[in-house]
Hints:
The protein is of the alpha/beta class. Helices cover 33% and strands 22% of the residues. The chain has helices at 29-32, 39-48, 76-88, 105-110, 130-141, 172-184, 202-208, 229-243; strands at 4-6, 9-18, 52-57, 63-68, 96-100, 145-152, 162-166, 187-191, 213-219. Strands 1-2-3-5-4-6-9-7-8 form a 9-stranded mixed β-sheet, with helices on both faces. Strand 1 (4-6) and strand 2 form a beta hairpin. Helix 3 (76-88) packs across helix 8 and helix 6 (172-184) packs across helix 8. The radius of gyration is 16 Å and the shape is globular. It starts with a strand and ends with a helix.
Amino acid sequence: MYFEKVEDFDNLEVGYISNLSGGYISKNTHLFDNIELNKLNRFILEKSVYGTPIFKLGKGGNKLLILSGVHGNELPPQIANIKLLNELVAKKINNTLFFIPFAAPKATMDNRRFFHTLDLNRAAHVNNSLSNVIVQKIEELGINFVGDFHSTAFNSNPGVESIFSTKSPTPESFLIASYISRDVGCEIISLDSAGESYKGAVEDVCNLKGIPAITGEVLSPFSTVGDGSVERSLLQMKSFLSYFGT
């Protein structure tokens, strides 16, 4: 996979997961109004017009992915993702971090859960779906651990701030989730085996491939940004990185 250096940011590179998923994030005013329009964020938004960008920060150590936007209308983690990248871009870090702020920019632009009628978190096992391509790139890049961050509304599933994990075949998924749960004070939802409740979640497909992964959920109404939800998602992401000493 090809990465290029990002001008003015010595430690940052950018590549593309897909060139078929682009969208104008600025059209989603609920999200756009919560983004600081600095140089880096303008660059991220510009790149998202042409597909799904992935950003690489640092080198060495574990390779960790912060993923968000698998559901386009779950806005807090997408905002938190770029906030995290902004916080870390000028710092010395001891792992290699990958960021996918907008998994499907077109779905985020439209403020819709689905990408071309497909629920990407039920399709990561479907060959050449966008979420399947993301998993393919995770394998290609040799990413060791994945944090997939979402939001959930009251009276939906799970409907509480939580961390999903599985104990088999990747027990470290459960250990990571337990750490985050204790660290930020949210529920842990752990399944005995990946894919046993439903198929196609990015987390489950990664775990089945031997890549420990968790899913973080914060509370926010769908298609908007609930009070404090960005901050809670950012805490989950930072806790995920903290588990690996970042």
